[in-house]
Design goal:
By secondary structure, the protein is an all-beta fold. It contains no helices and eleven strands. A hairpin with a 3-residue loop joins strand 3 and strand 4.
Length: 133
């Protein structure tokens, strides 16, 4: 299960709590856009603390990128403390497009002090198929 964290625009839900969490199935938010594009949530695979303006790598749940597909970052901010600037893997195959790739980490930039917990949604990506010309 993934956890979607929603900001409550500065309104305290409890003392010191500005966020509301909702457990979701990751696949409930996978959408096919037309018959070619796929929208996929990116979910944290570890707990991590951040300070304002800090950027560092964070482990994410594995996402398989099929051969002949590119990934495009969704620019819509999903996590209340910041945004992913990139996703990738430390194990890059020799073929950058023509082989399956596994995405397993992201670079997260914090706009405010805060924490990301394992299983929280930290971003989204769009997979789009490509062909050689």
């Amino acid at each position: 299960m993934a956890i979607l964290v929603q900001e409550r625009a500065g309104k305290l839900l409890d003392e010191g709590i500005f966020y509301e969490k909702q457990e979701i199935k990751r696949t409930d938010f996978e959408y096919h856009i037309g018959d070619k594009l796929k929208f996929v949530l990116i979910v944290a695979d570890e707990d991590m603390e951040f300070k304002v303006n800090e950027t560092k790598p964070i482990s994410i749940k594995k996402i398989k990128i099929p051969p002949q597909n590119l990934i495009v970052s969704s620019m819509y901010g999903i996590h209340p403390i910041g945004h992913l600037s990139a996703i990738g893997s430390y194990n890059v195959p020799s073929g950058i497009i023509n082989k399956e790739r596994i995405v397993d980490f992201g670079m997260f930039h914090a706009a405010i002090d805060g924490k990301i917990s394992k299983d929280e949604v930290v971003g989204a990506t769009i997979m789009l198929p490509v062909r050689e010309i």
